[in-house]
Design a protein that fits this description.
The chain is of the alpha+beta class. The protein folds into 2 domains: 1-40; 41-142, K homology (KH) domain (GMP Synthetase, Chain A, domain 3, 2-Layer Sandwich), CATH 3.30.300.20. 27% of the residues lie in helices and 30% in strands. The protein contains 3 helices and 6 strands, in the order βββαββααβ.
């Protein structure tokens, strides 16, 4: 079974349909490349996919790596974690040149070991490992204190 089916719908837009779920994504060319910028561009999706993959793998690590359980018996989660994504384009040829990611974790008083596990999960997600090495990735992790 295919992963998706993508159709050019005109006006520099595409419609992608996820084969398994039927969910739809519309893309639009960015303003700096003849489009209207009214939806994610394909390169926006590349960068956004990286962030989604990182958070997913961090969630899997939090669920499966036997991270601590708090006094109430609740396992450590990353619920509420966010990643701010900045795409930086390069020219000649036009391509994604860099992706800056600011990862903000929820308050959980993470131990050094937990931070290492979560950060390794993010850095080794399948999308990160698929990105060409010429694309500069910058990751910043922020862990708020409980105070």
């Amino acid at each position: 079974m295919s992963t998706s089916k993508v159709k050019y719908i005109g006006g520099l837009r595409t419609e992608a349909v996820h084969s398994a779920s039927g969910n739809t994504i519309i893309t639009d060319a960015p303003v700096d490349n003849h489009g209207k910028g009214e939806a994610f561009s394909p390169t926006d999706l590349l960068c956004t996919s990286l962030a989604s993959c990182m958070l997913t793998l961090m969630g899997i690590a939090a669920d499966t790596q036997n991270l601590r359980v708090n006094e109430g018996g609740k396992r450590l989660t990353i619920d509420g974690a966010t990643i701010e994504v900045t795409k930086i384009m390069a020219a000649n040829p036009r391509r994604v040149g860099a992706i800056d990611l600011i990862i903000r974790m929820p308050r959980n008083d993470y131990t050094a070991k937990e931070m290492q596990i979560l950060e390794n999960a993010a850095k080794t997600c399948p999308v990160a490992l698929s990105i060409h090495p010429s694309i500069k990735l910058t990751l910043e992790f922020f862990y708020p204190s409980q105070g």
